[in-house]
Amino acid sequence: MAPILEVRNLRTQFSGPNGYVTVVDGVSLTLAQGETLAIVGESGSGKSVTAMSILRVLPEPPARIAGGEVLLEGRDLLKLDEEAMRAVRGHQISMIFQEPMTSLNPVMTIGDQIVEALCEHRDISQDDAFAEAVALLERVRIPDAKRRVLEYPHRLSGGMRQRVMIAMALACRPQILIADEPTTALDVTVQAQILTLLAKLQSEFGMGILLITHNLGVVARVAQRVMVMYAGRVVEEAPVGPLFKHPLHPYTEGLLGATPRMHSDAEEGARQRLVDIPGTVPLPDKLPPGCAFAPRCPKVFDRCLKERPELVTNRDGRKTACFLTQERTA
Amino acid sequence: MTMATESVGAGAARRASRERLARYLARRFGQAAITLIAIVILNFVILHLAPGDAIDVLAGESGGAGPEYLAQMRKSYGLDQPIYVQMVQYLWNVAQLNFGFSFRNNVSVLELIMSRLPATLLLMIASILLSFTAGVLLGVFAARRVNTFADNAVSVLALLCYATPLFWFGLMAIVLFTVKLGWLPGNGMYTIAANFNWFEATIDVLRHLALPALSLALFHMAVYTRLMRASMLEIYGLDYIRTARAKGLSQRRIAFRHVLPNAILPMVTMLGLQVGALLGGAVLVETVFGWPGLGRLAFDAILQRDHNLLIGILLFSSALVIVANLITDLVYAMLDPRIEVA
Amino acid sequence: MQAFRDFWRRYRRKTSAVIGLVLLLFVFLVAFVGPWIVPGDPWDMATMPFLWPGTNAEFPLGSDTLGRDILTGIIHGSRVSLLIGFAATLAALGLGVTVGALAGYFRGWIDDVLMRITEIFQTVPTFLLAVVLVAIFKPSMTTIVLAISAVTWPSIARLVRAEFLSLREREFVQSCVVIGMGETRIIFRQILPNCLPPIIVMSSVMVASAILTESGLSFLGLGDPNLMSWGTMIGIGRDAMRTAWYMSALPGVAILITVLALNLVGEGLNDALNPRLKNH
């Protein structure tokens, strides 16, 4: 499958008191139609910033995209001016966010918020857009859509609001949906409903989904490929099955180890959080000279402290950035 | 759910919301009434703390009051009675809208106040509109250009307006626009003895209104500008603005359709507070511009030592503030869909 | 000392705050040193009336309708303004802190009653109330100071109450309660020092608004009849505005500079004392 989205060597920086700090460092990824790629990592790993850099919705300043390419069907989004980029946002690439409770404008009806997205990108009358908004709400399984469309967000539960967000994101049939922790703020049962809905809509619309999460239970459910990020860099990339069965990078091992036994209990599985590796992600302006994970790594050795491992493709086609796996396969 | 149960449910919901509104209004009116009574008591206390007895303060210095009238007043205020009886009597008088009599002007205080009220209301509404509109526009302008030269210029302007005594600004405006340039009148509310039709008369009043309204609006324009700028910047950082950006909306649409309506909400609560400040400022501005309103009446009352009238104006103004606060609350409840009373 | 150096380092980061401080120091200098350099009674007829500024080196700022020296008046007025501004603020602080601390610490019915009273004072138009108080109790330095503090204490009370309500729940206060420390001691030694920064910031703005209120009162003829204040001078100049506008303009500029300086210093203090808010 030819990728619709290809990110090459993306570098995003934030201005700090002592100059710019690199938060996303050389991230590359591809996404094909109908495919779901998950980006996982602890908070501070740069996964959300990567997603927002692709859509260029980070506030600039303080952020700036310092390098790389974001190719949408071969066209580099980073070279577009603001006008052209606006035509991409919500049209070819849409995004939904972690906090459905705060991601909708409280003083606009949900209908108006969907109509607005439709009218921005399509030549459509207000009346048609409104009818379309009702149809979209029905598509995301919101009961009584005709009445709900006139309501303000505070009347809806978190799960319902996330459905509204999804309806809004899919309004213009985007080729790519970026979902940034879409279920983190929701109840366990609602999480499952939203994931099922996303999968169903993906098969109907055929869009590629870039799923940002720290919940490995979610990854196992919906993704085909996984990219593990640590301290702004990709440390491992693999298809879901092999990654869960046989993680190569010690950090991925740690993540999976920190995860309570998979599927043992539906409730537990959905609550899996990546918190049990001792230590924390280093701040982007305080990275150690060698491998960023070295201070927390149980298998650390001399070279890790001096030299930074590159992301290398192994013989079996999997990618890791760890001297151990590279030496093993070399 | 069948149609029948549906409509029954909707009817019940409407009824419940009407009841909620009624309860809310009743509570707010109750609070307002208590505040008003407390303010009347405060006035009573001020009168009794003043040197001499209340009648000395009320009438003794105002001159023109004959001894038989003083005696009658002492009786009507029950000054021979214990203090709590006097207070009840005072409350009872005020409840009947009996604020007493102005000897200097030889009419009841209420009549005087009512005759001056329209001019003050016109001045106040004009300066509220002016300060609110200008403040919102300047605040939006500055917030969209945060940390640029234009933003800083607006901040400096706001700081200067903050620090300028409004009566002094009024005087300087008269010097510039009336004396030097001759563009606008600087005294009174309309041209005396001019033979105008209604249109010319309206324009005439508006021309007289311009400088006093601007002087009175200046301070709150600065308040609104700073508040609006801060409010806009805060909203710009919220999640739903990121959503709006991710939808591909233009900066302009985001600013005016998403940020502004949310940023303006906290400003509405300021409006009620502004009314009190404006009534105080009106004393100065109306004095400077000879505007025939309540403020000018208060100034005359000071000159004539007509304390009865002065207290009457204070009471009446406080009541206006309470009404304004009530209206503000209702407007806010209507504007913010999250408050479900309406 | 180290704390002060840190404070100064944060304060001077903002140019406007430094400008404000310089202006304020200048006003203080005028108030303290001025009378030695330009002696004389501001009420004395020193020269011919209607002398324009810059026409006579002996009276650089000119004279008013009765030939009183305007420079002497402005210097005298700076003392009046600063004195009334600071005295009224101190008095308002005394009342406001007491009310706010009691309401915030004891909560319950004490809080309800005190906040109701505060609300009443916030409903009455403040300037009008000050006018009524001064007019009824006869204009003097004391009545003006008391009247201004009577209309400004509620904002302090609300601020202190809010701080007390939140600080009271903190661990360090709770542990004082647990070890059986007396309530007076907790209020004055533990909680009050911790809400000083916002009180200080608000005070500087209150001095500014007290100066504005005083100038308004004396412009209306409700100033202390023995003191030459800036508002009085503007009121005097008003009668000759068409021909000699400088008489009102100059004292107005003095008010503007002083109030501006105090507001700038207030903002600077806010940034320096509340570092957690500096991002806004």
Description:
The complex is a heterotrimer of chains A (330), B (342) and C (280). With 330 residues, chain A is of the alpha/beta class. In chain A, 35% of the residues lie in helices and 23% in strands. In chain A, the strands form two sheets. An eight-stranded mixed β-sheet of chain A has the order 6-7-8-3-9-10-12-11, with helices on both faces. A four-stranded antiparallel β-sheet of chain A has the order 2-1-4-5. Chain A starts with a strand and ends with a helix. By secondary structure, chain B is mostly helical. A two-stranded antiparallel sheet of chain B has the order 1-2. In chain B, a hairpin with a 4-residue loop joins strand 1 and strand 2 (107-108). In chain B, helix 6 crosses helix 8 and helix 10 packs parallel to helix 11. The longest helix of chain B has 47 residues, at 3-49. Chain B starts with a helix and ends in a 7-residue tail after the last helix. With 280 residues, chain C is mostly helical. Chain C is 72% helix and 0% strand. Classes of the chains: A alpha/beta (330), B mainly alpha (342), C mainly alpha (280). Chains in contact: A-B, B-C. At the B-C interface, helix 1, helix 6, helix 7, helix 8 and helix 10 of B face helix 4, helix 5, helix 9, helix 10 and helix 11 of C.
Throw out a few tags for this protein.
heterotrimer; A: 330 residues; alpha/beta; Rossmann fold; 4-stranded antiparallel β-sheet; 12 strands; 35% helix; globular; B: 342 residues; mainly alpha; MetI-like fold; two-stranded antiparallel sheet; disordered N terminus
